[in-house]
Amino acid sequence: MTQPYVKQTIENQVGYIEFFHPAHNSLPGDILAELAQTITLAGANDDIKVIVLKSGRDRTFCAGASFKELININDEETGKVFFSGFANVINAMRKCPKFIIGRVQGKTVGGGVGLASATDYCMATKFAAIKLSELNVGIGPFVVGPAVQRKLGLSGMSQIAIDANSFYSAEWAKDKGLFTQVFENTEALDIAVKEFAENLCNYNPEAMAEMKQVFWKGTEDWDELLIHRAKISGRLVLSDFTKQKLKGYN
Fold it and tell me: pTM for the complete prediction?
């Protein structure tokens, strides 16, 4: 299958939400909106006790936002809407009353690092290097920054945000607290994710929902904060510096 999609399957009370785009799982606005809605609906589905967030194919987990859409932004409002895409998904994950387990099989960039950071428990393969590349085009990881900082700490987040050309290894991400476990291959990852998710289904859903609120305490302002950050990126993407940078990608 080469068409972009968001799909959900339920197996043994685990809701598996999978997204895909043929351009290395980079996500355009319509797919991000569908992903946010799917997460919200899964959170309200009594047939689901635990959610697993994953992407299609074997290589890249998520290459961030759609570069094709980024290049075509010509006004601040369009820019704000574009950068709000990942904000809406992160907020849907934050407010979802169920634990979300991340399954990261490969490299993840920009907004993808934000998605991984917004999961409640994230497992990866050794190929899951991470990079915040936004500064390369004159923007910055403003929208995903709060989620990334929450997991990596200010020091770790600022390190990869400033060093925008470098991938940091899965082991580095594990040491900083983003990944809980790192596996040799996707097969081992999938076995571990399935076993862990199904084991969580034996817990009291009310207790898990209460725990999730505890874990996310202090983020109650993110609805406003992330949209404010999206406005910053929407303004910066119109700068002469960024426009010149983007010309090189045409």
Answer: 0.96
Confidence of residue 250 (pLDDT cuts 50, 70, 90): low
- CA 217-213-49 angle, to 5 degrees, is 150
What is the percentage of the chain residues whose pLDDT exceeds 90? Answer: 90
Query: How would residue 1 be classed by pLDDT, with cut points 50, 70 and 90?
Result: low
SS3 151: helix
Rounded to whole angstroms, how far apart are CA atoms 152 and 157?
6
Give burial (CB, 10 Å; 0-12/13-18/19+) of 33.
middle
Retrieve residue 128's tokens: 């899951």
Tally of residues, the chain: 250
Closest by CA position to 56, among listed 91, 96, 99, 17:
17
Q: Is 200 left (phi over 0), alpha (psi -120 to 50) or beta?
A: alpha
Q: How far is CA 147 from CA 110, 115, 207, in A?
A: 12, 8, 23
- Give the strand pairing for 181-183 and 121-125: parallel
Helix (H, G, I), strand (E, B) or coil at 48: coil
**Residue 149: Cβ-neighbour burial (10 angstroms; 0-12, 13-18, 19+):** middle
Q: Reduced to 3 states, what is the DSSP secondary structure of residue 93?
A: helix
Assign domain 5-187 one CATH number from 3.90.226.10, 2.160.10.10, 3.30.460.80, 3.20.20.30. 3.90.226.10
Q: Is 11 exposed, middle or buried (0-12, 13-18, 19+ CB in 10 A)?
A: exposed
- Kindly state the tokens that stand for 173: 């991400």
